[in-house]
Amino acid sequence: MSESLVTFNNVSRFYGEVLGINNVSLTIPPGITSLVGPNGSGKTTLMNLMTGLIRPTEGEIRVLGIAPDHPEKLCRVAGYCTQYDAFPKGLTGYQFLYSYLRVFGMSHAECDERTLAAMQLVGLSDAAQRTVASYSKGMRQRIKLAQAVAHDPQVMVLDEPLNGLDPLARSEAIALFRQWGEKGRHVIVSSHILHEVDQISDQVILLSQGYVVAEGKIQGVRSEVKDQPMQILVRCDRPGMLAARLFQQDHVVEAKIHADGKGLLLRTKDADSFYLLLNRVILDSGLEVESVAPADDDVNSVYQYLIGGEGSAL
Amino acid sequence: MNQIGAVLRLEMKKTFLSKRGWWIYLLAIGPVFLTLMHWLVEMRFHSARHSLGEDSVVFAALYHFYFLRCGIFFGCMGIFSNLFRGEMLEKTLHYYYLTPLRRELLVAGKYVAGLASALVLFVGSTALSFLLIGRHFGPAWTDYLLHGPGLSQLGSYVLVTALACIGYGAVFLMCGILFRNPMIAAAVVWVWENLNPFLPSLLKKISVIFYLKNLCPVEVPIPPPFNVMVVETDPTPFWIAVPGLLAVALILLAYSAISARQLEISYGE
After folding, report:
1. Contact A175, A273 (CB under 8 A)
2. What tens-digit pLDDT sequence spans chain A (314 residues)?
3. Among B230, B238, B232, B243, which Cα is nearest to B214's?
4. What DSSP element (H or E) covers A222?
5. Does pTM surpass 0.80?
6. Which of A34, A207, A304, B216 could covalently link to A201 via disulfide, CB atoms 3.0 to 4.6 Å apart?
7. Cis peptide before B225 (omega within 30 of 0)
8. Quick check: B96 and A103 CB within 8 A?
9. What gap in Å lies between CA B164 and CA A56, rounded to an integer?
């Protein structure tokens, strides 16, 4: 089983006296996993650790069963698009991808084929013969992404991969991540853009000050946050009547009728009790309900609840 | 071997004849330019104020005091210490560290690439300078080269240059991995190497220049007033000096490989 997982077992990393991450234990399954947290929370440290660029002060890491201090094995199954916006001088986009693929020990023909495929994947085929130094920020971001995945790794670690991309390129990149995730690969992404994280993630890992605050599917994480009343939006024909019934309950903290008169946003400490009550109201009074949906089980809300004001950098 | 070849090709593409190495090319071209000027001036004015033997001593002095103590030393420093440190400063070393390449092979590939550049530049410069310095003697110089000691002297100079590149290359590659600022380490090594004639016998032997000097075909005495401070030591035989230097280079490379394996990529952040 651990052969298909990325695992951190009580991993700590200190930079001198400065904490990078502390006592992190994680299991990352295949699919898209987003690392979310403010600057300095430990996202990049976590990524550098799992790709072997740095070593843990304590603990054990395995990527598909491989220890990161065996780059000969690890780098065949993992690719890392780092945050560093730097490239070897004087190389064209094609040379950049091709040359590092050759270091993998592949033949000229295979490297050529993979380079062209990777450049096409990120939409840079036309710029292949231009030096990377002449690329725009978005193009540099795309060539880094191409370089990280050109060898077709099983685990893709992508540090802020959407930075600098225009909206079209973003949606193309997100589509690629989804495609990889659906193929059963590990796509581990850090991002500051929470609504995009929400769109793409199969699971999230929330980090704060070097600690993992929460991990798992975002709805599951939200339901674990007991101290914050859950927000639920009910679209129905008589929100006023529903609000009156709800106010008789202890667990309902707040209820607001929507401006169009067709919806009710409420906050409850006990979602299960609310759903039972709603069923009863529908049966008793024939309330016509169009939709019922949680309004705060997105990454942004969970992030605000768990990490709060620290997220100002986001 | 495929992987070392790939590193070698990539390194040559990135660094050989790159703009930022201009000062290293100047160090290599400088003596060629001087000897070329010497030839042209002698050809133009036919001064003939010196003999062929004197030119040979002049070249020996140029070799001892410029090539060994300055040109090759600083050239190797520029080439080899940047192989790792340069990539750390430019934040590009992680591209190598994210390939399935054993760090030992990375060190070997980079070293061979640096060595190829250094050999082309400094062996070329040494040979050209030697061939040009007596060129104005015409047939006498050709005769000196082909039938006299010229060719064997040239061979010795080329060998010493190659050994210097191998030895200093290994020293500076290691400095580039171990030290954030390899210039300080280079300055210490340079002072040590230049103090060599004045050191006690035992300390003399802990250097590169001591062995190289002994392999040079023409000895150049230290000029007065410094000559009184020179400590005379028996020269090391060829069969010890050459394998000894190669062994030291190998040990330094092995240590560099271990250090490269332990190296973390954080670029000082």
Report:
1. no
2. 567 899 999 999 998 888 889 999 999 999 999 998 888 889 999 999 999 999 999 999 999 999 998 999 999 999 999 999 999 988 999 999 999 999 999 999 999 999 999 999 999 999 999 999 999 999 999 999 999 999 999 999 999 888 888 888 888 888 999 999 999 999 999 976 676 777 788 888 988 888 888 888 777 676 666 667 788 888 888 888 888 888 888 888 888 888 888 888 888 888 788 888 888 888 888 888 888 877 776 767 777 776 665 444 34
3. B238
4. helix A218-224
5. yes
6. A34
7. yes
8. yes
9. 40
d(CA B47, CA B49): 5
Backbone angles phi, psi at A61, to 5 degrees: -125, 140
The C-alpha atoms of residue B257 and residue B101 are separated, in whole angstroms, by 12
Helix (H) or strand (E) holding B126: helix B124-133
A–B interface: beta-carbon pairs under 8 A: 90
Task: Report whether B82 contacts B16 (CB < 8 A).
Answer: no
Give A98's contacts (C-beta < 8 A, 6+ positions apart).
A111, A112, A115
* C-alpha span between A148 and A165 (Å, rounded): 16
SS3 A290: strand
Q: Decide if A54 and B99 are in contact by the 8 Å CB cutoff.
A: no
Put simply, whether A39 touches B (Cβ < 8 Å) is no
Q: Which residues make beta-bridge pairs with A263?
A: A235
**How far apart are alpha carbons A97 and A132 in whole angstroms?**
11
Q: How far apart are CA A144 and CA A81, in angstroms?
A: 6
Mutation choice for B interface testing from A49, A103, A154, A158 by most B CBs within 10 A: A103
ipTM here: 0.82
Q: Does A100 touch chain B (CB under 8 A)?
A: yes
- Rounded Cα gap, residues A242 and B40, in angstroms: 105
How many whole angstroms separate alpha carbon B78 and alpha carbon B25? 10
